[in-house]
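Extended Data, record DUF5133 domain-containing protein
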Amino acid sequence: MLMAHPAVLRNLVEQYDSLRILHAENGSADVRQRMDDVAYTLCVSTGTRDIDAALVAARHRLPGARTQDDSVLTA
């Protein structure tokens, strides 16, 4: 699987977080569409199928991520 550059992942995560806040404030269809587009790109970039998993995977690949953090693992 191709891996997105950390700078790209950081940008996508920041965009998604900003759009989520903007959507919560005004709920416009344009913002929701852009949020869906960024979510899709994050999923493709991280090899995941839903935005929650994509955000975890993207943040894990960013510089400074704690690689030994097992908080996303389930028993």
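Summary. The first helix runs from residue 6 to 26.
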